[in-house]
UniProtKB/TrEMBL annotation:
It comes from the Eukaryota. GO terms for molecular function: hydrolase activity, hydrolyzing O-glycosyl compounds. It holds the Pfam family Glyco_hydro_2. This is Glycoside hydrolase superfamily. Keywords: Glycosidase, Hydrolase, Signal. GO terms for biological process: carbohydrate metabolic process. Residues 1-17 form the signal peptide.
Amino acid sequence: MLLALLILAPLLSTSYEVKTPPLDTPWTYTAGTDPWPEYPRPQQVRDRWQSLNGIWSWRNGAADELNGPVPTGNLGTDVLVPSCLESGLSGVMANNTGNGTILHSWYQTTFNVTEDWQGENILINFGAVDYQATVFVNGQQVVQHTGGYLRFWADITSAVKVGQSNELVVFVFDPTDSEPYVVPIGKQTLNPSHIFYTPCTGIWQQVFIEPVPADHIEWIDLDGDMNGQVNITVHSANNSSSSVTVKVWADDGQVAATGTGSSDSPIVFEVANPKLWSPESPTLYNITVTLGNDTVATYTGFRTVGKGMVNGMMRPLLNGEFLFTFGPLDQGFWPDGIYTPPNYEAMVFDLKTLKSLGMNMIRKHIKVEMDLFYHACDTMGFWVIQDQPALNIQNGAEPNSTQQDVFNSQLFELVEKHRSFPSICTWVIYNEGWGQVGAPELYLAPMVRSLDPTRLIDATTGWNWHGAGDYVDNHHYSEPQCGTPFYSIASSPYDPNYIGFQGEFGGIGNNVSIDHLWNVQQAINGINQTYELDATVEIWNYRAHLILDELRQQTEMFACSGAVWTQTTDVEGEVNGFLTYDRRILRPNITQWQSDIYALYQAAADRGGRIIISTCL
Ligand SMILES: *[C@@H]1O[C@H](CO)[C@@H](O)[C@H](O)[C@H]1NC(C)=O
Ligand SMILES: *[C@@H]1O[C@H](CO)[C@@H](O)[C@H](O)[C@H]1NC(C)=O
Ligand SMILES: *[C@@H]1O[C@H](CO)[C@@H](O)[C@H](O)[C@H]1NC(C)=O
Ligand SMILES: *[C@@H]1O[C@H](CO)[C@@H](O)[C@H](O)[C@H]1NC(C)=O
Ligand SMILES: *[C@@H]1O[C@H](CO)[C@@H](O)[C@H](O)[C@H]1NC(C)=O
Ligand SMILES: *[C@@H]1O[C@H](CO)[C@@H](O)[C@H](O)[C@H]1NC(C)=O
Ligand SMILES: *[C@@H]1O[C@H](CO)[C@@H](O)[C@H](O)[C@H]1NC(C)=O
Ligand SMILES: *[C@@H]1O[C@H](CO)[C@@H](O)[C@H](O)[C@H]1NC(C)=O
Ligand SMILES: *[C@@H]1O[C@H](CO)[C@@H](O)[C@H](O)[C@H]1NC(C)=O
Ligand SMILES: *[C@@H]1O[C@H](CO)[C@@H](O)[C@H](O)[C@H]1NC(C)=O
Ligand SMILES: *[C@@H]1O[C@H](CO)[C@@H](O)[C@H](O)[C@H]1NC(C)=O
Ligand SMILES: *[C@@H]1O[C@H](CO)[C@@H](O)[C@H](O)[C@H]1NC(C)=O
């Protein structure tokens, strides 16, 4: 009987189909089985690559299996890669609530390496795997990576068979907030409730392989500033002795400047009179980087982020001028994909919506997106405030020293792996005191600063401020307290040595019919926890107008330098988005919002800020 079952097992494997999620989007059933065909790494583009996205097999695992034999062959259940196992798009839609049912997973697929890659090194790249991935190629462990939001790669040359089929197996461990684990998870929880949502488990960003010379570029740190200075460090895989050539291309197809030097140390040179990058004019320059026989395409935007006194107030500066930033709290959750947008078009739909309302900033909230998202922000023009994903704080969990070290190292890895996106202008370390025991930001902010001196640091957005970083950042619902001499109890008083900022406000809600709601009873029961519910969209817009007008007055009277409205979309039981969770209803009266946002920019301009001319206004 047992033998018969074992023999039948592969035949019993389920074939992939989208599982009907509690709510879908316009893209749920068009995402297909060849997902995310776009080149995944826009800052380091090579001509040759092969996507490994698509249908893989999956089964539940157990902790001790990592020490046993690596499974081979079809694991029984089809799964779409990339996706979260909890998502309808995964084809699995695992119910991972309670104590967690998919703490451990095995993934399996096969891939071929064509003969024309013979003699080259082969790299495998993962965009992100939540939370810990152990990767095997033909049974040989090639890499283990911890941290659910960060790309990693491995040289798999010695494990790969060229011209033949190769088996790729990944063991995933994802504790989310199960006890006793305390790891960076952002808004994920095994017990969703109102502002905490369904978790994401597994391989949720793109996977691909590529051939490279043995002597190759591993990654690039790149910064362009308002004076045209290019500062680039080309990290080589193998302490290369080859020389590096960097060419910056002007938009007329001519070389604007060339830098040369060696790998693994900064090469600094200048482009004369560059067109600067800003949210309203997001000019990017293409760059090619050559190390020996390896050439990659990359790009930068010339801009300088800083702070300084403008008319007696500490202000965030872009290219030497005060820029008032306004934009949403952006969670990046999807009803059909959870952490993974259904496709590129869907991901950019959110950004286009924000742009059409006149926003120039996004606070990416305790989540890290795929590189394609930041590339879209670079291209479309957003000042991105990037949060480090918060530690699990459910059940009153607090990090011990080991867990604090893990948080710290993932924070540094976040900075190191995203420091070349021109749109990212501010790093956030802690959100509302979550996982912040004592004041670790007093040593973390200087460490982030020394890793990356080219950006601002918002050490604590909301609550528990001890003077670290560049901002004093208030959270208050629904009305703002932005750089004001009044503040509510959990916040800090405005301090004129810091940038006055409203890291969260708004959050007003408007319930919708069940066909636009995340149809899970626990979530629907939580809708009444919304800070404020407005009976109709007209009332919601009326309230928004009053609240935005308060922000305008605070910008005129006090030291308000920017604000974050909660939020881009509804998420599960939160009904306070510009868009509903399914992206089918847009609540803002576009004309009204454009004019209210423009009034903010005007108020800031009247106090020495720059006026934002956006084509949509
Ligand atoms: C998931 O499992 C939990 C715990 O067993 C259960 O209470 C809940 O109803 C399930 N959710 C769904 C959507 O099936
Ligand atoms: C989770 O585990 C704890 C401790 O083992 C148990 O008391 C609790 O009932 C479990 N909860 C669920 C939803 O299974
Ligand atoms: C690999 O190549 C073999 C032989 O050409 C073919 O049968 C197999 O389907 C290929 N596998 C994949 C994953 O493309
Ligand atoms: C590193 O470089 C040395 C000298 O060029 C070469 O012999 C060796 O194969 C390289 N190692 C790898 C892993 O590429
Ligand atoms: C170039 O960047 C490196 C960090 O990658 C930094 O240490 C160095 O000071 C920078 N050089 C200049 C001239 O800005
Ligand atoms: C490169 O050099 C560093 C420092 O000398 C050394 O620690 C490291 O092992 C070298 N890496 C390789 C791949 O040879
Ligand atoms: C930069 O390169 C991209 C990709 O090759 C191309 O689409 C774009 O037109 C180039 N931009 C400029 C300004 O040359
Ligand atoms: C570059 O490629 C040429 C031709 O294949 C080869 O002779 C040379 O050794 C390579 N150079 C490096 C640095 O790998
Ligand atoms: C922190 O807690 C984890 C999980 O319980 C444990 O494995 C680790 O040893 C603890 N570290 C310290 C320093 O207590
Ligand atoms: C929100 O609307 C849903 C269905 O449209 C309804 O079931 C729920 O009771 C409403 N909640 C509140 C707080 O209005
Ligand atoms: C919200 O609704 C739930 C379920 O309908 C109810 O149990 C809870 O008491 C309500 N909470 C408030 C604050 O009204
Ligand atoms: C939107 O706002 C504008 C400007 O306040 C107003 O004239 C218009 O009537 C509003 N549109 C709707 C549909 O409420």
